[in-house]
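Q: Joint fold for the lines below.
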Amino acid sequence: MADWFTLVAIFLLLTVAAALVRCWRGPGPVERIMAAQLAGTGVIGVAVVLGAARGDAAFLDAALIGTLLAAIAVTAFVRGTAKPGAKE
Amino acid sequence: MSWIDLAVLALLGAGLAFYAAGSLGLLRFPDTASRLHALTKADNLGLGLVALAAAIYGGSLAVAAKIALVWLFAVIAAGTTSQLLARRARLDEARLDDADSAPDGGLR
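A: Joint structure:
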């Protein structure tokens, strides 16, 4: 069973790699940050799956930190790049 | 292979399918809103199903609770960020429309 979980982790990394193509091509900053967010979710999935595969709860701590940082990254992007005088 | 193992494998497969759909949608969909729609599938369902499989496989209540917490935070983060991103995308569109009619060509 642990092998299946490792296999799933590899597949998840492949989907993250596919999402990074969108990060590369854009066209807008919103698309790029969306791809970065999908990469973040993918890595959280990898951490959960690897934690199950190896029976190591420390991976879950990493996943928890990942979820918190993903939200902060996108919030910082949206708040930090709005031009002054923009309608909100 | 027990019934529980089969259930875990089925959940893993379903979760992977949603992750793949999210990536594919992000790559293939034509505009920002529909790409955002694809992204939330991976965030909510993909991670949810994979996490459920890991929680069942983990076998202890403490591990399952922690995985549930990971998923809960991820769902809250996904809901918040998709609202923020959609608003930002709308602002960008409005600014582009203004730029078309602005006398200076609209510095973006």
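Q: Anything notable?
A: Chain B has one domain: 3-97. The mean pLDDT of chain B is 82.
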